[in-house]
User: Fold these one by one.
Assistant:
Number 1:
Amino acid sequence: MKKIVWLCVFASSLTVVTWHGSAQNKQAISLLITGGTVIDGTGAPRRRADVRILGDKITQLGRLQPLRGERVIDATGLMVAPGFVDIHNHSERGFANDPTARSQVLQGITTLAVGPDGGSPLPIGQYLEWCEKQRLGTNVIAFVGHATVRQRVMGKDFKRTATSVEITQMAELIEQAMREGAVGLSSGLEYDIGNPATTEEVIALAAATAKYRGIYMSHVRDEADLAFDAFREAIRIGREAKLPVQISHIKLGTVGVWNKAREVVKLIEAARRSGLDVTADCYPYDAWSSTITVLVPSRKHDDPAAVKKGLDDVGGGQNVLVTSCSAHRDYEGKTLEDLAKAQGKTAVDVYIQIVKDGGAGVVCKSMVETDIKTFYQQPWVMVASDGGIGMRHPRGAGTFPRVLGRYVREWKWLSLEEAIRKMTSFPAKRLSLSERGALKPGWKADVVVFDPNAVVDHSTMTQPALEPTGVKHVLVNGVAVVADGQMTGERSGVALRH
Ligand SMILES: [Zn+2]
């Protein structure tokens, strides 16, 4: 039997101590996580060890006996790891609805970086102060978004190249954000506002970021047929602006580039050998969920040739599953190919009809599993969710338990130690977080205790909010936000500044 000694009264008094800083640390309560197996986040092999925490810090690791009056978490049979660090998270607005960040901490996330894909809060300083006032369930760090500053400077007139004066103004906003604590510049060059930017514009802005030792993190210009050009562009930006590059949710999203992950690996390893610090993250899903019309980017939804190209790019109508369709409820749960066969039509005909009748929600295959596996097996690829509070894709609630349950335990793609490294010390280092991402004496007590035999995701494309199981305890700055699998309601996260 597991013995969980956790009293809310004690937990909330500890919160007060932690929140108001270390000056009152003499009131801090000592906590021992005992009987567990420690995976310290560095990639080192697991070992039997107890972990002592005082206030918001880890103080000791080893074979330890409980002190008199010390609180104890019995972790017998469980793994004890650093809290997970999510470098790509869209919770910036979701925090207003749920400051406890339930869907995030139940996965074991203790620090998340907001502002990816070119879209961020601005000013960053004001946002981080808001986070502090809200008191959040996770620690937060922020990127400044390229599209955000681009729109701030160019207004609605962003569908063109920027002038040198405008680029200077954008650079000033970025430098201000960096001084206020942003960790780097994010871009989303595939999206409406970022896409008209030239590579030279982004290089100039990345150079402004580099002055403050920030990184450049990009949703690259194309994740489909032109993905290789897009990766080369990201590498060029890093090389010319002289800063580290993070490729967001690395992907090969169309038939034309499927099964080419080994070639991407070669491209990126060549850049790494030449001295460029380039890394990537990858989410553990092979499908996206959106409205049917995104399949035809030209928006020519009644043009059979354009529709055919859109369906061919995802491998045909059998890869497009209708999940919601108000005009035809009986279509739900069927693929375009199923519907075409039943009606004696083509998938193109069915697409055109559905759009005419008001559209549909679809889930669509974006990647082949062998490519995801290849990426996950590279030491320079980390785990990130691209999710966040309220995300209507299963990655929002399932990413980290999914990697541990499916990729590690069931499919044996990588070791548990390596998976934990990809969730902790590696992203923490990328974000220049000090004293987080590993279990070490003197470091911050962001800790996850999970059951390696049970941890798994349950969220699906049709039920994206289903919560994972197997994550037992989550401590953020020494305070339990999850205890015995349940939310405590504590909000002990802090805003982190670069
Ligand atoms: Zn993205």
Number 2:
Amino acid sequence: MPRPERSYRTPAIILKRFDLGEADRLLTLFTPLYGKLEAIAKGARKLTSHKTGHVELFTRAEMLLHRGRELDIVAQSEMTAPYLALREDLVRGAYANYCAELLDRFTSSNEADGASRLFTLFDETLARLCDDADPRLAVRYFEIHLLDIVGYRPELSRCVIGGETIQAEDQYFSYVEGGAVCPKDAVRGSAATPIAMPTLKLMRHMQRSPYGQVRALTVPPDVHDELERIQQGYITHLLERRLQSVDFIRRVR
Ligand SMILES: [Zn+2]
């Protein structure tokens, strides 16, 4: 959705924040209608700024923005979810930072497609990272649903090489093909990494279930480790490919 001509109100979560000059801040925001956008919060670094004083990282706010020639300007900002634990707990904050970076890197500015679902997913994830006993599981859930929304949903039910139904046994996962590979096709030379059945089952469960059902699980450390290795391996592969295509476009231009 194109942003309105002059001023507009929107919920926004602050993904990134840079100091700009003496008193201003450059913000990267994520919004449900307009996706990711950059805006300037003038005077945000002055203690006396009441209108835009609360532009902390990983908070949700109701904002009034003015359209600028190049960048929009935050005219008012009222915090609606402080997510305080993310700034008080180093580990939880690091997870939030990681999720924000993934959201930033998998989206383009002013891309409205999927923005509403991404906003809700990220907002809910920040709340889970504050409250949950196992914040690592909230991160994995975020990853797999982020991939779904941005078009990289891993195929976990059928072999991505031969199309066979994936059986209840140890399998393989291909980063290049984006999904599970049966043992028969894995030995025939496609580059795939082993994935144990409990890990694959958990991925499937996360993919199709609401978080309330996933949160109730106690995930053994070895499954957690493998889940992290597989999902981050796939994400790293996708981001490298994405960077290469951005680089290619730049060189063609
Ligand atoms: Zn196969």
